[in-house]
Amino acid sequence: MLKSQTNGTNNQSTKPISPPFIFRDPNSPEKIYGMAHSLQELAEILPFIPYFSIEFHSYRVESDSSISSDLGLWLRYILSLNELADEIEELASSIEGLDLKEKLIQLLNAHFLDE
User: Fold this and answer.
1) Looking at the 3D structure of the chain, how many domains does it have?
2) pTM, full prediction
3) How far apart are alpha carbons 3 and 84 in whole angstroms?
4) What string of pLDDT tens digits covers the 115 residues of the chain?
5) Residue 34 is assigned to a structural domain of this protein
6) Domain limits at 105?
7) Main-chain dihedrals φ then ψ at residue 100, nearest 5 degrees
């Protein structure tokens, strides 16, 4: 972590300043299902997030036919995890629903085992 990403203290409980990833209800954005500040927190909350919120934030086709992946963008540009973002975007483009949720949980667990 860069020094500029901390809140200025030198203790172990320092949290990054970077924005968290927030799983919202696609039909009611003020409803929040969970929030993660790190990849570990993401892995911890993912089992508790409704599959339709995961699906919405992982891969969707916008009205202008562009593809959006909020989760992929957060992994890529906030956590600098390009390969993981690519894997998740590819996975989310081919499966959906509960299958997507289960595969993402497996992918994140495997990511931590590989470290």
Assistant:
1) 1
2) 0.80
3) 24
4) 333 334 444 444 455 567 999 999 999 999 999 999 999 999 999 999 999 999 999 999 898 988 999 999 999 999 999 999 999 999 999 999 999 999 999 999 998 777 6
5) yes
6) 19-114
7) -60, -45
